[in-house]
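Proteins fold reproducibly. Take a sample protein:
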Amino acid sequence: MANPPQVETVTSGADKAKLAAAVLLLIGALAAYYGLSKQGALVQIASLVVLLIAGVAIFFTSEHGKALIAYGRDSAREVKKVVWPTHKEARQMTMYVFAFVVIMALFLWLTDKTLEWVLYDLILGWKR
């Protein structure tokens, strides 16, 4: 059996710095939100949003961010290839599932009652 090729990710120092900056901005956003509680809700929320946007923007300029964007684009492309069922087919399959659930519920109830009758009434003799 052949071994699959190993994928190695090489990140540059600049890429690592971008990721570190993004993490620091996210931590700074939380610190600013809680640290500026005496300044008012508007200042708190504004600092949180601005720092979060800056952190996310820096993340998306890194290799990991670009890979995430590419993954999202590929996923959207694959979803467009899916053949979705028609409304009639979806309704029919839903009814099949409901019918199966009802049949299974009746089967399990009947099995339970039969075992209860056999064990309690016939074997143990505990008549109700």
Remarks:
- The chain is about 80% helix and 0% strand.
- The mean pLDDT is 90.
- The two ends are 65 Å apart (CA to CA).
- The first helix runs from residue 13 to 35.
